[in-house]
Amino acid sequence: MEPIELSTDLNELKDIEYYRTKVKGKFLYEKEFLIGPRSLILNGEAINEKGGGIFSPKAGSGYYVITPFRLEDRDITIMVNRGWIPRSDRSTFKMEKKITDPIEIIGIIRATKKRPPFVPNNAPGKGVWHFRDLDAMAKVAEAVPVCIELLAGYGAPQGPVGGQTKVTLRNEHSNYMITWYSLSACTSYM
Asked: What secondary structure does DSSP assign to 56-118, as a single string?
């Protein structure tokens, strides 16, 4: 679909998660932070950067870089997931080449996420984020609780790897068909 305009009504954003949106503005790098650890996603599939395996499970582990983004046409700041960086770049990611001019970006609208089971709580005071809690993130970034994830190709050339949204829809139709036809055959035989 073509990108839609970002709505000013925050309640409306809950109903349009995964829609593409286009916004123009400037990144505010001084308040950016990391969420992780996360796997790298390329072409919709999580990959292991160095091959990994049983003895090196964290080889493809890294972080998402969340940067506040000041909109040009409105007086609000939103948060943008600029993409994935490897674990080894955690301490040097702030030294990358920054985009200081206004830029138009296209991303996917994302909603807040409940803490998954077995995942530690976020610790905003320490700068430790494990999952996307938009309300808490917005307080730290001094932004509204709106987050978009950049599509691949809209970040800095040497910056984080964009396009980190993974959408997987289950297709269980064949399993259902086998189950119900088997049950039907069994009951017919009986």
From this structure: -TTTTEEEEEEEEEEESSSS-EEEEEEEEEEGGGTTTGGGSPP--S-EEEEEEEE---PPPTT
